[in-house]
Amino acid sequence: MSINFGEKIINYRRKNHITIKELAKRTNLSTAIISQLERGLGNPTLKVLSDLADELGVTLSELLREDIKNEALILRKEERIVSYYADGGVETMSNLLVDSPLHTSLDVQMLTLTPHRETRDGFMSHLEEESLYVLEGQVVIVFSEEEEYLLRTGDSVRIMPGRLHKLRNDYEQVAVCINMKCKVNY
What we know:
Layout: H1 6-16, H2 20-27, H3 31-38, H4 46-56, H5 60-64, E1 81-84, E2 90-94, E3 106-113, E4 117-118, E5 129-136, E6 138-144, E7 147-152, E8 156-159, E9 166-169, E10 175-182
Antiparallel strand pairs: 1-2, 2-3, 3-10, 4-9, 5-8, 5-10, 6-7, 6-9
Helix pairs in contact: 1-3
């Protein structure tokens, strides 16, 4: 989603009762550039954005901050992406938090692990840091063949980037976990 700061420019002009021509004069920008930006067109340089922010009396980050409607931050159950592993024993519900319209470095997933299953055939590791919270049941987090820890309902674990790990459900009850990752690159 592109950032539309054109409305901020329009609102500023209306509030201050100035024309595009007057704003152009104050900022040393052309009327064509300002008109394009107000319509969400063009590809302004950092200097252009900085000059506009100065005139509007806001920081550059405030000028670029997207105004997101609260309704757009709701993700309905039927909109979630659900993926299953081949054996049917693991269900991952991705995008537990809204990934659109925001570009975020936080990814929150719900993981359901049926009895006597594990998350993968082998160990996995990620570039990002992650944290796992056990919502229901029990799981064993396995860091290596010699290092395993039982996590019960309400327990959590922080998993550092690059650390090999997997989850296993050795029990008769379905385990439900919330997995949070802080992505490095988005």
